[in-house]
Amino acid sequence: MAGDQLQVLNALDLAKTQLYHFTAIVIAGMGFFTDAYDLFSISLVTKLLGRLYYTKPGALKPGTLPPGVSSSVTGVALVGTLAGQLFFGWLGDKMGRKRVYGITLILMVLCSVASGFSFGSSPKGVMASLCFFRFWLGFGIGGDYPLSATIMSEYANKKTRGAFIAAVFAMQGFGILFSGIVSLVVSAGFDHHYKAPTYEDNAAASTVPQADYVWRIILMFGALPAALTYYWRMKMPETARYTALVAKNAKQAAQDMGKVLNVELEAEEENYGTQIHFFWFILQRICSPPWPSLIWNNFYMKDVFSAIGWIPPAKTMNAIHEVFQIAKAQTLIALCSTVPGYWFTVAFIDIIGRFAIQLMGFFFMTVFMFAIAIPYQHWTEKANRIGFVVMYALTFFFANFGPNATTFVVPAEIFPARLRSTCHGISAAAGKAGAIVGAYGFLYAAQSKDDPSKRDAGYPAGIGVKNSLIVLGVINILGMLCTLAVPEPKGKSLEEASKENVDDQDEEV
């Protein structure tokens, strides 16, 4: 059957864009909305956690999370995400996309709620239970990456497939924005109701006992969008490509897709299949598409903005107002650069292609990162802070109108059906490995090298923000070089892009 294609798959490739495509984007996208909310909301409350549990009486500055605790609270969800991407990616190819899809959502709902109920009689106990629940939250989130991308790619037509997959991923931007908005509303409400002085005016009274509810409410709110989409996720049929190519039931695939796409498809004999040399196929493909996303941008935005003075010094605010200021900065960046970057990718990915967007994104990220880092002292001056924020926002824009989006889209297109979920999970895990290095390393690296007063309590001297940004710029250059190996699946069917419809003889030539 070399070069042939089942009617149901051909119908999917040529189908007109219709309501069910948009329904699938919303259902899969709400998972990513929740993923982003859960992953990045922690960065909004880490300063508050430090004040609540690690402030020492008489200290000149409010308490901060110790280095090991801070990196663990921030990074443990990423470790869970990496593990979940590998496990659920593999399970999605073994059991089917739909059967696994609901499990990840249940895990996310339960662990979001449990994170807010983190308990303990000591700071160490609270942080340990928070890390435990956030690991399993990340494990559920990890499953959403390969499953959502695979499901959307297998439902889409070849003309607009890139835009559909990118639209699912773009919901991540709304999740980041929503986490900032929820944090603004919660912190503003508590700050208005519980009037508290600044830390420098009255250290003991600057953190009211009710502030402990603020971080719990913010983290728990992530369970709501996930719970609302569970019913619709369970109503989605299994994808036709899994049913036809992996489960070998072309008749069922035709029936399922005939219902949801409102087309009549004839049941076909289950005679489609190829024998690709998968070891070499995976080796060739795995090495090319993924590159670690710059998740540290969202996690450590507050530290960079604090370093240049855009967020006021902690001692000039009470505990809840500091949450408000951090949330305001994240919300503005998400609204002005992160969200638009995602949707520029949606608009242009099927016009200029994945390769061009990824290369362009890495190039401009490099340009703006060096433009910030090299004259860093210039940007720290009060008169130049707005310029710094604009340049920093542009790195977010081109991360998302660039490699952060394309490294999600491409792995969903270039692997064969029976390995698509597994290999997307491996590709996504490669990105998370880079994010974990950033989560555990950037806090240390960004500490001032020469001025101990500018270091967070308990941290050793690092290389400073300037040199950390230069290192990240160099990483972007390496990303450009890796992009040269990325294949271009634009305009091809999934079977063409993955070479799944070639026989052994074709593959060996």
Automatic annotation (TrEMBL):
Segments traversing the membrane: 20-45, 65-88, 100-119, 163-190, 213-232, 331-349, 355-374, 386-405, 425-446, 467-486
Give GO terms: molecular function aspect only. symporter activity
Chief subcellular location: membrane
Record has Transcription as a keyword? no
- Is the keyword Magnesium in the record? no
- Identify its membrane topology class: Multi-pass membrane protein
User: Keywords, A to Z?
Assistant: Membrane, Phosphate transport, Symport, Transmembrane, Transmembrane helix, Transport
Q: Which residues form the Major facilitator superfamily (MFS) profile domain?
A: 24-491
Q: Which family does it belong to?
A: Belongs to the major facilitator superfamily. Phosphate:H(+) symporter (TC 2.A.1.9) family.
What Gene Ontology cellular component terms go with this record? membrane
Coiled-coil stretches are: none
Record PROSITE patterns = MFS
Name one process (GO BP) from the record: phosphate ion transport
Where in the cell does this protein reside?
Membrane
Per the record, what are the reactions this protein catalyses?
phosphate(in) + H(+)(in) = phosphate(out) + H(+)(out)
Q: Which organism is it from?
A: Forsythia ovata
Report the protein name in the record. Inorganic phosphate transporter 1-7
Pfam families tied to this protein = Sugar_tr (PF00083)
